[in-house]
Write a structure and sequence with these properties.
Blueprint: H1 7-21, E1 26-30, H2 37-42, E2 53-57, H3 60-73, E3 79-82, E4 94-98, H4 99-102, E5 105-107, H5 109-114, E6 128-130, H6 131-136, E7 144-148, H7 156-164, E8 169-174, E9 191-195, H8 198-207, E10 217-227, E11 233-234, E12 237-238, H9 240-247, H10 250-264, E13 278-281, H11 285-297, E14 302-305, H12 311-323, E15 328-331, E16 346-349, H13 356-363, E17 376-384, H14 393-396, H15 409-421, H16 432-447, H17 455-464, H18 469-474, E18 480-483, E19 486-492, E20 495-501, E21 506-510, E22 515-520, H19 526-536, H20 539-544, H21 558-567, H22 579-603
Parallel strand pairs: 1-8, 1-9, 2-4, 2-7, 3-4, 7-8, 10-17, 13-15, 13-16, 14-15, 16-17
Antiparallel strand pairs: 5-6, 11-12, 18-19, 19-20, 20-21, 21-22
Helix pairs in contact: 10-11, 15-16, 16-17, 16-22, 21-22
């Protein structure tokens, strides 16, 4: 009994089939939380030869959810669960398995007693083997393996399972196609065959008869005076014990409770209705209990769900929240994966998060549409970060960190991207309004409709032309950041180079004449990109465009100062200018001027 598929779901399944026919056997697709990934996975056997099929999930909630969907779509097939003391029928068409169960390894006695040998039939010389797999399934039994939440799949438990089976095809799906520890998914998958983002499906659903697909989101902030500068990190994320010790304090918790009261009562100037179902993400159990107690002391209908919550209490509190009988639910990791509450319309990030995976899973809880739900509201709790880079709503939507001031996240991100793509750098920008003001000032300066009269205005224009710090540290040339994984560089008059990464972390350099894959890297491979674009530059430009050229540290020339004062109407100038910064600023302003003239000609 096939479920009615949405247009993008059919597109995804057709992309899987096309990739399979093209010989791509390790496939990845990415769609947001709430897009119906379980439904798409359940229809895979209708598009590629996938039976017998193994489906891997790492949580019991996901195992049960996937089993239910598969049974609804394929009642004619034998479907079983392989988990702990549950055993699927040996002749099952589809097995939904727990990764911790299948991936549990044991020491190979043969190799332990007689030395490791690559000819060992049990472990192949690794010294360990997966007992549950070897006892239950032959290597050739399954034709296809599907990995749910496949951003986990680079870890050894998953790769050991994948190596054991001789499957014809492996398909991974996730809402967040990256890992906190930086291990690229390209180590597991050969290609991203289909990808849609939250903005993609939100806007698509608004245009479709069967929409909406996802709810719009807005974002506000609560600022604290808590410093995270000394908090330790592990594998790219905060050490949770150290973090909890730092952030679980009365002043910070009071700010969080006040922010919930202020923002969730409704924001008339933004036409934002009061929030009805509020999820609060805490650091650990003690933090969750403290926040819940403070909310209750203020008279709010709040409950906590943590590991030590009794199963009966947990079921009742979750049910009450989902049914609208409980307004606030506080937890730690309980709500991140395999948990649906369409009524939820506010996510409070009381837990500072460095990981894009964890953050996107958290805000994904409020993206599902629900009758009467105008949008999902994200409340980012922003601490003094030191050298830490934290996830916020702005960075989750692909722009640099800034306060969106309650704006629609999609529209705010679009505007910021337009500003960046117009060539306006955002160094020092803290809010969406500041970005707008800088863009307007730069445009007025370029068009000659204003004078730069104050030191502040001069600094604003200068900052718009600044080279990003990661470029200054790792590149010879002035690449401009266009987003989290995209940079552009002017290599000659009218010619640009672009450096960008795909969802698997594979970087590419693109120019007017060449496109070169640079491989998978956790950070932008500026050095390799520099070598390639250097070949595209005219010889006289190569030394001139170097950021470290000696001439750049010399005092500004009279001609540079005259151009700034007469051509661009600077009556005030930034302090400590040198020839290099003047050159960068003038190059930037002239480039902006050319872009404006071209745009005017195209309109005419």
């Amino acid at each position: 009994m096939a479920m009615q598929l949405r247009g993008y779901q059919r597109e995804c399944l057709e992309a899987i089939r096309a990739a399979y026919l093209a010989g791509i056997r390790r496939q990845l697709f990415s769609t947001p939380t709430g897009s119906g990934k379980a439904v798409m996975l359940a229809h895979v056997p209708d598009y590629v030869p996938a039976l017998p099929l193994l489906v891997l999930a790492h949580q019991i909630e996901l195992v049960n959810q996937l089993t239910g969907t598969l049974t609804s779509v394929h009642p004619e097939l034998t479907i079983g669960i392989e988990r702990a003391d549950q055993y699927a029928p040996e002749s099952a068409d589809i097995v939904v398995a727990s990764v911790p169960t299948l991936g549990r390894s044991r020491v190979c006695a043969e190799c332990r007693d007689h030395g490791k040998s690559p000819l060992c039939p049990q472990c192949g010389g690794s010294g360990r083997f997966l007992k549950r797999l070897t006892d239950r399934w032959s290597r050739d039994y399954f034709k296809c393996v599907i990995i749910d939440e496949c951003h986990h799949s680079s870890c050894t438990t998953y790769t050991d399972i994948l190596k054991y089976f001789n499957t014809d095809i492996a398909i991974g799906c996730t809402a967040t196609p990256y890992r906190t520890d930086g291990i690229p998914l390209a180590n597991v998958f050969d290609a991203v065959v289909y990808s849609r983002t939250i903005p993609d499906l939100t806007e698509l659903g608004e245009q479709s008869a069967d929409g909406p697909y996802l709810a719009r989101m807005r974002a506000v902030r609560a600022y604290t005076k808590t410093s995270l500068a000394t908090v330790k990190t592990k594998k790219g994320e905060f050490d949770q014990a150290d973090l909890a010790h730092t952030v679980n304090n009365d002043p910070r918790n009071s700010i969080i409770c006040s922010a919930i009261e202020d923002h969730c009562a409704g924001i008339p100037e933004l036409k934002l209705a009061p929030r009805q179902s509020i999820l609060v993400f805490a650091v650990n159990q003690a933090h969750a209990e403290t926040l819940t107690q403070q909310l209750q002391d203020r008279g709010h209908d709040a409950a906590v769900v943590i590991e030590r919550t009794k199963p009966s209490d947990r079921r009742e509190r979750v049910a009450a929240f989902k049914e609208g009988r409980l307004r606030m639910l506080v937890g730690v990791n309980c709500f991140l994966e395999g948990w649906d509450a369409p009524r939820a319309d506010c996510a409070v990030l009381a837990r500072p998060i460095k990981s894009p995976v964890t953050y996107c899973q958290a805000i994904g809880r409020i993206t599902r549409p629900f009758p009467g739900k105008d949008c999902g509201l994200v409340i980012d709790v922003v601490d003094i970060c030191g050298t830490h880079h934290l996830m916020t709503a702005a960075t989750a939507f692909g722009i640099r960190d800034m306060d969106l001031l309650g704006a629609d996240c999609i529209e705010g991100a679009k505007r910021v991207k337009q500003i960046v793509e117009s060539g306006v750098g955002l160094e020092g920008i803290k809010t969406l309004d500041e970005a707008e003001e800088r863009a307007e000032l730069v445009e007025a300066v370029v068009l000659g409709t204003t004078y730069v009269k104050t030191h502040r205005e001069a600094v604003e224009v200068f900052n718009a032309s600044l080279t990003p710090p990661e470029v200054m540290e790792h590149s010879d040339f002035a690449w401009m950041a266009m987003g989290a994984t995209s940079y552009v560089l002017s290599i000659d008059k009218g010619k640009m180079a672009r450096l960008f990464a795909d969802l698997r972390g594979e970087w590419t350099v693109l120019t007017d004449t060449t496109q070169v894959a640079l491989g998978v890297h956790p950070h932008p491979p500026f050095r390799a990109a520099d070598q390639l674009v250097r070949r595209e530059m005219p010889p006289e430009q190569r030394m001139f465009k170097k950021l470290a050229a000696r001439w750049r540290s010399q005092p500004p020339t009279d001609k540079q100062m005259e151009l700034l004062r007469t051509r661009f109407r600077f009556t005030a100038l930034p302090r400590d200018l040198n020839r290099g910064t003047c050159s960068t600023l003038l190059d930037y302003l002239f480039a902006q001027s050319r872009m404006k003239r071209q745009a005017i000609r195209q309109v005419a």
